[in-house]
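Below sits our specimen:

——
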Amino acid sequence: VYKRQGLIYYSVNESGVDSDGREVSTWPWTKDKAMITSVKMEGYIRPVSCNNFFRELNMVTSYKLDKFDTTACTTTEWMFYGNSSLEELDISYFDTSGIERMGYMFHSCSKLPTIDISSLDLSGATAITGMFRYCSGMTSIDLSHLHTGHLTSFGDLFYGCKNLQSIDLSTLDTSSATYMSGMFSGCSGLTELDVSYLITDKC
């Protein structure tokens, strides 16, 4: 870590584990989170774990992620948690086919009006628990491109999304779901919700 001309430069531990072999849960920039307003990647990075990667960088309004290589990543849990100033997010560069754990990925991204998840490949994941929890600024989201028939948990998926006005569940395959508790809890902005497409017999 070094500072120059008002910028802070960090190196990334791409192995995703610390010196004791444990999964990294905090990153070098975590301690500076209150003063980071923008993020720039000087070169390509390819971490094994994206767990908590941008956690609580609550001054950042947008990211440029074209040099963020997720092909080696196995987890994106809590990746953008607490990014409460984030107004747009482009994850189209992400290859998520090998990611196993994606829970709470966008938790508390409270200013995002929507998230384009059309490129999100869930084929390696087993659950998307709390993925959009407390995305309280979200008004709509398109789920039509998601393949979810193998996922077992949808619990707390939209918990606290109080400004969500409508959502089409007709393409959401929950045939393998065993846990769906709290899925729409606190979605006080929804005036109608058609859940007739949801398969809940294993829950």
The mean pLDDT is 90. DSSP finds no helices and two strands in the chain. Residues 20 and 37 are 31 Å apart (CA to CA). The longest strand covers residues 2-4.
